Amino acid sequence: MYYNSIEEELNSRENISFFMIDLNDLKSVNDRMGHLMGDKYIEKFAEILKNVFEDNIKIRMGGDEFLIISDICDEKEADKIISELREKLNVTFVKNDKTFIMGISFAAGYACKESFQTAEEAIALADKRMYENKRFLK
């Protein structure tokens, strides 16, 4: 499974952190606009994620969850990059020859190496914090 590769990354770096990011309201987008538009919603988000987290490892964990492996081990820097991501998420979509702007919402959790020993612990901690953020946003 991917934990072995992540574990190798964890053991090879002095500074390493994990961001777990989950899109909000994907079901609503699918229900209101169709699954094709839901796929575009995920694709646009992934494109923006790639640009914001330029040199970091980005993994789609499944569905609408993403894991970012980074070297950002400062909480203020982590908050700054998440804020930068949020600022870029009003995106333009085209459906049936109509253009519209839609905001993409997400929840995020962060864990730095000093908070965990294994990749499994890191992902679990970032995931737990992401769900806490999701509850806060609702």
Describe this structure in a few short sentences.
This protein is of the alpha+beta class.
Overview of the structural elements:
This protein has one domain: Alpha-Beta Plaits. The protein is of the alpha+beta class and 138 residues long. α2 packs across α3. It has helices at 2-12, 26-33, 35-52, 75-87, 119-137; strands at 17-23, 57-62, 65-70, 90-95, 98-103, 106-112.
Task: Name the features.
138 residues, alpha+beta, Alpha-Beta Plaits
- Main sheet: strands, sense, barrel: 4 strands, antiparallel
The share of residues in helices is 40-55%
Secondary structure class reads alpha+beta
In N-to-C order, the SSE pattern is: HEHHEEHEEEH
The CATH homologous superfamily is termed: Reverse transcriptase/Diguanylate cyclase domain
**Total separate domains:** 1
Q: Which geometry do the CA atoms define?
A: elongated
Distance linking N and C termini: 33 Å
CATH architecture call: 2-Layer Sandwich
| Count of distinct strands | 6
Describe the oligomeric state of these chains in a short phrase.
single chain
Our estimate of the beta-strand percent is 25-35%
Order of neighbouring strands in the sheet with most strands = 2-3-1-6
CATH fold-level topology? Alpha-Beta Plaits
Total DSSP helices:
5
What's the level 1 CATH class?
A: Alpha Beta
Describe how the helices and strands are arranged:
Elements: H1 2-12, E1 17-23, H2 26-33, H3 35-52, E2 57-62, E3 65-70, H4 75-87, E4 90-95, E5 98-103, E6 106-112, H5 119-137
Antiparallel strand pairs: 1-3, 1-6, 2-3, 4-5
